[in-house]
Each structure stands twice: as structure tokens, then as C-alpha cells.
Write a structure and sequence with these properties.
It holds the Pfam family Glycos_transf_2. 44% of the residues lie in helices and 18% in strands. It has two domains: 7-190, Spore Coat Polysaccharide Biosynthesis Protein SpsA, Chain A (Alpha-Beta Complex); 192-233, no CATH class. The protein is built from eleven helices and eight strands. It is of the alpha/beta class and 233 residues long.
């Protein structure tokens, strides 16, 4: 497989005006290296799209929902390597050589280790468990900046239109192509969700939802349970 690549970073957003400029400015080195950044907006009403436009290569409109947004971005992307990045997650400084190493392998996809932005030791422990779980299971979550070769993405039909667990579901299908290529340089994801709900409550919520998913409960009912828990935080 060729080791040269053209990277398309696809970022689904909704009402991210407070942080979108700093997020995209952090990706400027990728654009200067000749790669592209695609922002997929789901009808934000806070000016997110207008703020993003000067700092990315393209802003795409899509229906709300990360699966639909990421598929929409992949459809217009020009790269042979797709990387799906949350708006509150920062890539490591050595992202390009890490992806170059991936492209020199026969793996079809991969993900990064993750680190939470909060400095409390507990959050380091949480990140360790998240990364270890991913190493053992081959399952990736959206916070880990999944990347996939375009031909593999298209062969598998992209993300399923699920309101929750679209990343887990896609990981399960991607494992049919290969085990993930795991990058140890971590992405840094904002810990605000963990801090808002409380770390132990968030851990319990995520594991409960994942357990219910593995038992066959519909993503629609899980999304409703997730929204209810977050509203009551």
C-alpha cells in the first residue's frame, strides 16, 4: 500500500462558536502542509459556520447527528485518508508522521490514545482505562479521533445513521478489515462533560449505556437515556 497520503479532517459541529476558532487555528499546520479541513455544521444558530469558514477549506451543511454529519463530510472530502475529529479534541503535534507510519502498513484504520484536559490524577486514571479498553477490544470511540482509509470507509458504507454509538458500531465493522492501528501520542479532549456530570457519574453512565448496547438495546432508547441523564445533571 502506498505510504503517501492526502488527509481530510472531518469535524462535525453544532453551536461551537465559543471554541471553534481556537480549534481550527490549532489545525492550521495541517492546511499549510497541503491537507484539508472540512467542518460539517448541523444548523448552528450561534454563528459557528461563519466563524469556521475563514479557517477551514469547506463548511458543509448537514442534518443534525454526528453519523450523518461525518458521512456528509466524507462525501465531499478529497483525501485518501479520512480523520474524524470532535470539535473539543486537539490532535498531537506529531500527527502527520504518525499517520505516515500508519499509511506504510496494511492496516485499514486506526485511532489515537486519549487524554482528558483536566489535571486531576483521577482523569489520568480514567484515560488509562479508556485506552486500555480500546487496546484490548479494538473498539474506538469518537474522542479518539478515528482515521480510516477512504476505500475502506466506502467499502463498509460509512457510519450507520444512529443517534448514539455510531462510533462503536463502525469500529465493530472496521475490525473485519483489520485491527486498529493505535497511536500512542494522545489527542487531548475537553473534560468539561466529565466535570459537569462528575467523573464517577460519567463513568457509570457510559458503562451502563455501553452494556445496554451490547445486550441489544436500540441506540434510539440509549440516546434518550443519555439526554435525560445529562439534563438532570
Amino acid at each position: 500500500m502506498p505510504d503517501q497520503f492526502f488527509l481530510s479532517v472531518v469535524m462535525p459541529v453544532w453551536n461551537e462558536a465559543t471554541g471553534i476558532e481556537s480549534t481550527l487555528e490549532a489545525l492550521a499546520p495541517l492546511r499549510r502542509a497541503g491537507h484539508e479541513i472540512i467542518v460539517v455544521d448541523a444548523g448552528s444558530d450561534d454563528g459557528t459556520a461563519a466563524l469556521a469558514l475563514p479557517l477551514c477549506d469547506r463548511v458543509v451543511d448537514a442534518e443534525k447527528g454526528r453519523a450523518a454529519q461525518m458521512n456528509a463530510g466524507a462525501t465531499v472530502a478529497r483525501g485518501n485518508l479520512l480523520l474524524f475529529l470532535h470539535a473539543d479534541t486537539r490532535l498531537p503535534s506529531d500527527v502527520l508522521p504518525r499517520l505516515q507510519a500508519f499509511m506504510a502498513t496494511r492496516r485499514g484504520w486506526g485511532r489515537f490514545d486519549v487524554r482528558l484536559s483536566a489535571q486531576r490524577p483521577l482523569f489520568r486514571v480514567i484515560a488509562w482505562f479508556m485506552n486500555t479498553r480500546s487496546w484490548l477490544t479494538g473498539i474506538c470511540t469518537g474522542d479518539q479521533a478515528m482515521f480510516v482509509r477512504r476505500d475502506v470507509f466506502e467499502a463498509l458504507g460509512g457510519f450507520q445513521p444512529l443517534p448514539l454509538m455510531e462510533d462503536v458500531e463502525f469500529s465493530r465493522r472496521l475490525r473485519l478489515a483489520s485491527r486498529p492501528f493505535c497511536v500512542r501520542s494522545p489527542v487531548i479532549t475537553d473534560s468539561r462533560r466529565w466535570e459537569k456530570l462528575g467523573p464517577w457519574r460519567t463513568i457509570f453512565l457510559m458503562w451502563r449505556l455501553r452494556w445496554r448496547y451490547w445486550r441489544g438495546e436500540s441506540p434510539e432508547s440509549l440516546a434518550q437515556a443519555y439526554r435525560s441523564d445529562v439534563r438532570n445533571a
